[in-house]
Automatic annotation (TrEMBL):
Residues 115-195 form the Quinate/shikimate 5-dehydrogenase/glutamyl-tRNA reductase domain. This is Shikimate dehydrogenase (NADP(+)). It holds the Pfam family Shikimate_DH. GO terms for molecular function: shikimate 3-dehydrogenase (NADP+) activity. The gene is aroE. Residues 244-274 form the SDH C-terminal domain.
Amino acid sequence: MSVQRYAVIGHPVAHSLSPRIHAAFARQTGIGLEYAAIDAAPEDFDAALAAFAAEGGVGANITLPHKLRAAQICTYLSEAAQRAGAVNTLTRAATGWQGDNTDGVGLVRDLTERHGLDLRARRTLLIGAGGAARGVAPALLDAGIGGLYIVNRTPERADALADMLALPGRVHPRYLKDVGTLGNFDLVINATSASRGDPLQSLPTLPINLIAPRGAAVDLSYGEAAIPFLAWARSARAHDCIDGLGMLVEQAAESFQRWHKVRPETDAVYAKLRDREPILVTA
Ligand code: NDP
């Protein structure tokens, strides 16, 4: 039987750890597969996915900036993908691509099981309203957080995410520039890609009193991209400063389970990656 083909599609994607993670899961579970990284600019996404399917691709992880577009091309969306309006896991079916979203369950598993956080009733600030924010917001609400404030550089996208969540009493979209007027939060999550590109395009300076006593700060990115936010979080005396590496491993395990019907063990894979990607904090 030919080896099954999988890939992560993003832009940029060269530094993605997903091929390494899925290779480790495959070794652990004895499943033969190929997992490639495909770089596709936004205008090339549809063609890249079609070429991947034509070459026998049966499953793909979708990363920035394609998660919203991926949701539009699917012939079926899971409940998680529908609620997010964003897809990070594609599975090939006879009728076309089926879309799912494992980002939210990945983040919640990492925060509650690996880091031991109790999310219930935490007043939460989500910075960003792109594909990742859309994936994690429903899962955080399901995990019992308190009020969810969503701030975004482009306020219409925060409004759109809040509209989609349809919980007006619990979800509050606000302008990023007004972040200093919102009080403090038990959980602050950076779901922007601000520090991945031009250093001059970083987040505006966040107020030091944004994090409540014993509050947690989480950056969904990891490695160098997480440095500015986690350095701020340390200076703001966050009790927990957490990067996105654990979420990355957990969302990958959830995708792996959907494709191969077996859930890999994640702790050893996480520990190995953590050796390579220490939490880098300068403050
Ligand atoms: P998108 O491109 O879909 O969204 C980017 C978000 O960042 C938007 O809200 C955008 O605001 C905001 N943003 C970008 N630049 C700036 C800036 N200079 N100032 C303020 N806001 C800015 O990306 P994703 O949502 O897919 O990814 C976001 C981050 O999450 C990335 O760092 C990604 O690596 C990480 N991630 C980590 C995962 C993990 O498993 N650990 C999984 C998924 C994502 P606007 O709407 O105004 O453009």
